Amino acid sequence: MKAIVFADRLGQELTPLTEKTSVAMLPIVSKPILEHTIESLVMSDIRDITLVVSAYADTIEENLGTGNRWGAKFTYILSQGEENPSDIIQRLDMPTDESWLALRGDVLRSPVISQFLEQAQTLPGDYVLGLMTAQCASLCLCRSGCQPSVLAELRWTGETQPSTQDNQIILEANDSCLESLQSYHQANLDVMAGRFSGLIIPGKQTVLGLTTGPRSQISPKSLKQGLAFVGATCRIHPEAELLNDVVINNNVIVDRGATVQSSVILPNTYIGELVDVKNAIVWGNDLIRVDTGAVLHVSEAFLLGDLQTHVLNNGIAGVLHRFLGLGLLIASLPLWIVALIAALWHKPSQPLKKEQLEGNQITLDELGNRQRKVFTTWLWNTPIPILRYLPRLIATLTGDLRLVGTLPFSPSQLAERIAEWEKVRDEAPVGLIGPTQLNLSAMVPMEEKLMSDAFYAKLRSTSKDLGYLWQGVCALFSRRAWWVQGQCH
């Protein structure tokens, strides 16, 4: 039997999720909605499948391929988006002497195709509609003589309406039209909890209530209450907490102390240290509250991040910067002797000075608000910059500083900021070197340093950071690194 799958919803009702992919490719428990439909067809031994697609058509074809993965054959037909299925069928060369199946592939249903076809055999006529609820037609068996106009029942209008056709079967199974963000959120939790019997979930139960995909790292102690699904290649910090029902899709990082409660986390998302996510859908930098519909775009990558945009995400970049910092510290050991001599020459009574700076580690204040942790470091008491700041290399090992980042400031200096633009620098990590440290004199006003840091925070990228690293290496051999008049940064 041949199947025509309509997967051409435009998805305005699911914005902003559909700004990144089509409705059909939105994941339900780590698997695209359309893929659940394909598996249901294959389970019913239907392998000749025509997919009607619209938005992100190239991405859909690239991800699903020719159907070989399922032992099926796919044919792709392009739609203008939410077209009347009867108009599309008239453009296709459908068999007139055999039955074929039409269905929507951008709604979610339990695998009931075999049940529907079996029950349809008991009904006469040139078509039989299958209704998952009394409000939503999602299947149609077309026989010889079937008129294309019948398929208007399958058209997506954004509203569920009672079927006007007589020849229909009400199927006893769960379904979701995914007509809203709340519906999409709930469908993920329902599938994870087993309420859509028969759907294949890509993972195995490691402990009671916790299902995980391959190559994921999670401690069972992180599940504090309820059920949780964690997809493939995820890393959940042992000190992170999952509460109530939680679905975490593929390639997600949940950092230390973060709490995820009654939420759906979509692929390639980073959730930062101590971040609390509750009753939400999170995808990259976007947090959607399903109770209010509010959409919050978070620009601070240390809170929420898109792992596809930031190739070196916070977890990986932190390890890399510490490793490189260790290498630089070992390479700089001969300079420590020179720094000691220079400091004793400059001020014998106090060769080292203590300083307190705000770093990259996150802590909570007395009210439970997130803030950067203040750390203590030392300065060699010498005006030679390259020697003066050698002790800050140790801070790269503890994670308080990155090798590349904004200029470190003391808490008192940062408390003087008033304008909002002055706080833009907080979106980037604090570093040992960066454009401000390399390009500005220590004598320029703090406002100019904050402006430089703000530009860096908005424009930074991995390639730019590598450029600053190289610029820093070259600066080691410059006159400025070894002799600067006046105070230093």
Automatic annotation (TrEMBL):
The chain crosses the membrane at residues 323-345. The lineage of its organism: Bacteria, Pseudomonadati, Pseudomonadota, Gammaproteobacteria, Thiotrichales. Gene3D superfamilies: Hexapeptide repeat proteins, Spore Coat Polysaccharide Biosynthesis Protein SpsA, Chain A. This is Nucleotidyl transferase. Residues 390-477 form the Bacterial sugar transferase domain. It comes from the Bacteria. It holds the Pfam family Bac_transf. Residues 3-125 form the Nucleotidyl transferase domain. PANTHER family: SUGAR-1-PHOSPHATE GUANYL TRANSFERASE. Keywords: Membrane, Transmembrane, Transmembrane helix. InterPro entries: Bact_transf, Mannose-1P_guanyltransferase, NTP_transferase_dom, Nucleotide-diphossugar_trans. It comes from Candidatus Thiomargarita nelsonii.
